[in-house]
Amino acid sequence: MSMSMKKMMIGGMLVAGALSAENPCNLVDCPPEKSVCVVEAGVPTCVVQKFEFPTGCKSGQVFEGSSGSLDYPAGSGKYSNNEAACFYFKCIGKRASLQWKAFSTEQGFDFVSATAVTNGAVGATLLSKHSGSTVPAPTTVEGADGIFMYLTSDYSVRASGFELDWTCHEPLSLGDVCYQFCEDGSCAPVNKREACPADASCLSSSALLGFNSHHTCQLKAGSVCYQFCENPADCAPVNLREHCAVGTECKDATTGFGFNSKHTCQEVLSAGATCYQFCENPATCVAIDKRDQCAKGTVCKDDGAIGFDSHHTCQAEEEEELLSVGEVCYRFCEGGSSCVPVSKRDQCASGSECKPTGAIGFNSESTCQAVLSVGEICYRFCEGGSGCVFVDKRDECASGTECKSTGVIGFNSEKSCQAVLAAGEVCYQFCEDGSCAPINKRDQCASGTSCVASSSMPSFNSLETCVLSQ
Asked: What dihedral angle (degrees, nearest 10) is formed by the CA atoms of 59, 62, 68, 72?
């Protein structure tokens, strides 16, 4: 056979055909969806992918094209006992997917299994295996020759079988349009929802509004959207931060310490969603604390509700006018037409906090009051010495701190604002096996609490928390 001819192998026979420099295997005679062009020693050979059902199959159906449906057995009947029905969904080099619509087999005895087909042969590794009445998740394979599926049943108890849709598409990338429909005909229809990558879903985007629909391949919640390892051998770099699904954002999920970084797509709360809720009476509401889950451009803020209960929502970030020392930051009016309610507890300027004024009556009022930070002197008593200046600001320490002795020895007495632990916080911890970080802050429990041993730690390990004094 001269080099000006090509060889086409069909069932073991060589068939001559025209050659070209650009296309050594003529596409008319050797289409890529049905064959593979192999060039050896300069000689191109078209190897036709001929699929043969395994010998155990009692029946076999082949499905080709871009999409279709299968209802087995057809109609309202049931499959047979000792069934061995086989199906081949041909999809060479693309993304093949089975989307189940109904499923019913004898639980634990009759099964529907699927494997990939590679180079015309059925693979040994299962893609899926299902039994019972639960509708399975989609079965998908990419880059193979398609999916081989088979139903097997035992000698008794039959069921209605299954119904599915199948697709065969070129695999899509993140951001690609997977579904599109325009009621007004302004766009070309697209339906490739099962062609998105394995870690992505076909989800709605905001590109088209109204009756038109536009979906793109977006990373699922929990998928890695960013990854960097100082040592390249530790992980492959990933930078897909802009492809997180609508309603999620790429947020830090790094565990441990070091220069390595890992982010995943995490669900976020939209503007108006409740991010924090606390009720003095637990029967009136459910406690919520999702203050770190507000979407970008929003912040968890008090919605202005008046009373003992607290309710915060994700609100658009905006520059607020901060309140100066002495301005009213909170007012609750139990009665009186002249009383105007106020709820601006988080708007006091730096160095001040919203604290009660101590006014007596049914109404309650707080103002922004200057506070002392950790380390500042809150109390000093001078028994003698011209250089000592008396100080008494014991009620001005910032939240989370208390006025405590500095330990200075002498006739004069001095205290400073020191950080304290709230009830429930760990004040002492020691693990004999080294499984926890040691903590010794027994003297830092807030007033009215004490460091008490907890029984939750086993054996030789010790755990103590600040507990309200009886």
From this structure: 10
